[in-house]
Amino acid sequence: MTATVEVLVVGAGPTGLIAAATLARRGVRVRLVEARSRPQVGSRGKGVQPRTLELLDGFGVAGRLLAAGRSRLVIRRVDPDGTVHEHDMGKGADQAPTTPFTRSMVLPQWRLEETLRALLAGYGVGVEFGTRLTGMRPGEDGVTVELSSGEHLRADWLIGADGGSSTVRKLAGVSFLGVTREEQQMLLGDFRLDGVDRDWWHARRRSGGQRLSLVPLPETDSFVLQAEINESDGDVEPTLATFQALVDDACGPGVVTLREALWTSRWRYNERMVDRFRVGRVLLAGDAAHVHAPAGAQGMNTGVHDGINLGWKLASVLRGAPELLLDTYEQERLPVAAAVLGLSRELLTRFAQFEVSDFDAMSGLGITYRGGPLSPAWNGAGPHPGDRSPDATCARPDGRPVRLFELQRGGDWTLYRFGGGPLPEIAGVNAHSIGTDLLDPHAAARSAYQARDGEFVLVRPDGHIGHRTEDAATVTAYLAAFCGKADPIRTVA
To answer: Residue 455 phi/psi, 5° resolution?
Structure first.
């Protein structure tokens, strides 16, 4: 007998884990399979950006990540002539009332995955390691798959989050357009070592000009080492001896001693993306849909955004929303992925030299779906539909402080009405009257949104603004059109 599941997620990296968690917390029956026999141990992507932290704060795990990461790490670049340059990538990016996370955080990818696996386990879902997708037959109402265990499974929907060499993408027949440059390579690895302190992000150049960096991984005793190689290095392999020779070339013989290699890899310049994120009941996300240069951990962060955007929409469709909502996943995320490819390419050309504008682009705080299919036009002031919803601190009637971001946790829509007054009661929407059940004594929320009395602001499950209006009926109409929430308005005080 063939087992059935609502959603099968293939690939348990950050994208697959957060997509599965987004679905599971909405009550979707989901399975997550991973070809690797155990959790990966390499740092790989080593940075979590501010907007990603905001999204993960919506799951209540940002505090755990902040405790395990490091948000203040100055890059110390030493030129061949001994000149020292210091650069704080987050300089001037101090916490603001509307933006609780403003600095990029150094955090190894394995730590993020560990945190997301624990989150997923809290929803009753575990990762099925050592299980590969070996066959796939899509149909009009589902996908039949064969797993390496010999199990045949029928899924209503299948998400391919299985990386740049995605089996799902290949079996779906989706092209992976772009370029691979064999002449542009890098060796990477996590090492225990002696000779440099853990207070800096160390950057050097080798004798031939190739770049090398040593970055301390927080809450560990190891560093990630990244070293450019080119044709002058020959066909070197990522062995301990090879890395030691590269470090000696950059820092001087005997200055840094590599004691143990925990993980090593070779990276080749690969910049590719698909031209569609969906083929019927098969959906692609993360590196399965786009691969980037390893600069600013943009690939990992973009994958997390993919997983959350796709997860809430697919959960909504499974619970009665019109299927056209899923089309907006590609419409919103494909342009973002294309822009990130360009950003990663540009950052790769730098060497520990960043401008304030780089942070603005890297942080993800400016990502917007303004003008997209879920973002009606808005002629007023403040953030528009499609923009990130700002945070603000309000108060309960008894004086207890509460952040808007806290109210937006849980995966549902959130509706604010400014200036007090009755609220429309709509199933699956958390509604708050700013002026009645929420107090805004310092006008922090009103200022963040530049809102008028009587105005409604509807916030999507992924923390982007869906709709702004002064007409309660259009809130219900909006939700009915896109999310199947067509309950009649019942106003409550």
So the answer is: -85, 140
The one-letter code for the residue type at 219 is E
What is the rounded CA–CA span in Å between residue 461 and residue 55?
10
- Report helix, strand or coil for 286: helix
- Looking at the DSSP bridge assignments, the partners of residue 269 are 181
Question: Whose CA is closest to 39, among 130, 164, 175?
Answer: 130
Rounded CA separation 312/24 (Å) = 10
Write the DSSP symbol of residue 482: H
What is the sign, positive or negative, of the torsion defined by CA atoms of 304, 309, 314, 315?
positive
Residue 264 to residues 167, 223, 417, Cα–Cα distance (Å): 23, 12, 53
Which residue type, as a one-letter code, is found at position 487? D
Cα–Cα distances in Å, from 244 out to 211, 257, 463?
15, 7, 45
Maximum distance among all alpha carbons in the chain? Answer: 75
Which residue, chain included where needed, has tokens 């997390």?
Answer: 304
Q: Which helix or strand (DSSP H or E) is residue 325 part of?
A: helix 324-348
Return the bridge partners of 364, or none: none
Local structure of 105: helix, strand or coil: strand
CA nearest neighbour of 75 among 256, 204, 243: 204
Amino acid letter for position 314: L
Looking at residue 46, its amino acid is: K
pTM of this prediction?
Answer: 0.93
| Per-residue CA distances from 292 to 55, 267, 287, 462, 465 (Å) | 21, 11, 8, 23, 28
The answer to whether the beta carbons of residues 220 and 42 sit under 8 Å apart is no
**Strand spans (E) along 84-176:** 84-87, 105-106, 127-129, 133-138, 143-147, 152-160
- Type and span of the H or E element at 115: helix 109-122
- The answer to whether 288 and 306 have CB atoms below 8 angstroms apart is no
In angstroms, the CA 98 to CA 326 distance is 30
Count of C-beta atoms within a 10 Å radius of residue 126: 12
pLDDT at 491: 33
Per-residue tokens: 154: 């029928």
Q: How many other β-carbons are positioned within 10 Å of the β-carbon of residue 137?
A: 12
Q: What are 191-232's pLDDT values in tens digits?
A: 999 999 999 999 999 998 999 999 999 999 999 999 999 888
**Does residue 384 register a pLDDT over 50?**
yes
Q: The tokens of 81 are what? A: 């002539």
Residue 395's DSSP bridge partners are: 401, 439
- Determine which helix (DSSP H) or strand (DSSP E) holds 458, and give its type and residue range: strand 456-459
What pLDDT digit, counting tens, does each position of 412-462 carry?
A: 999 999 997 788 888 889 999 998 889 999 999 999 999 999 999 999 999
